[in-house]
Amino acid sequence: EVDFVKNVMNVVDNGGTTLVPAFGVAPSQEALVILKKHHYRGRIVIDGMAREIAKIYKEYPESIKNINSYRKSLRNAHFISQRRSRRDRARAKKHSGVIIAPSGMLKGGTAISYAKTFLRDPNSAIYLVGYQVEGSPGRQLIEEGVFDYVERSRHHNNVNELHIEAKCDLEYFDFSSHAGGPHLESYVENLNFRNSSNSVFCVHGDNKSTTSLARTLTKKSYNSVAPETGESYIL
Fold this sequence. Notes:
Layout (H helix, E strand, L loop, with lengths): L1 H12 L3 E5 L5 H11 L6 E3 L2 H10 L8 H9 L1 E3 L5 H10 L2 E5 L9 H8 L6 E4 L8 H8 L1 E7 L6 E7 L3 E4 L8 H9 L9 E3 L5 H13 L3 E3 L10
Parallel strand pairs: 1-4, 1-5, 2-3, 2-4, 5-8, 9-10
Antiparallel strand pairs: 6-7
Helix pairs in contact: 2-4
């Protein structure tokens, strides 16, 4: 957290902007609270789904660990207007500060609009804070310093293939809230299966990770498998 905020402050102090592509639910709000917690006082912009979720969280204070801290962090944030989104985004790109916008892996969302601008700016930065799955644009950006993305127009059949070599600062900060292997194993062990099949399908992860988890669960007498895309199973 400290390293993340220090890096952000360095960028902003030098007149740049930090884009934080973050998942709309939880990581975006966590990044906002972390900035407040470590005394960042610069401009913060919230866009995309993160903006809607931030407002919903505020309506359920009993579900937030420290609601006062969360409310204070929201006071420093500027929310992109849905009605004036084009104007607000253009203005956000011109001012130094922090922009928090989904998607967390740069697979879409409002973060793409900002990324196209800041990737080419050596004074700015893109700091990823969530898990980057293998093959995602975010993972490639961190490992190769290149952003490849196929942009499709909603209203036209236009396809724009982006290939941008990053000139901005790039970093990955592991704020991932995903459960680790032991936690997932404990979760499965506490399930009440409806029949004796004990079937567990390990999906939505790197092949190495899902296969490893499936193998571990098989040793514990579960009928576990890491299916490949297109495979079918009858239960």
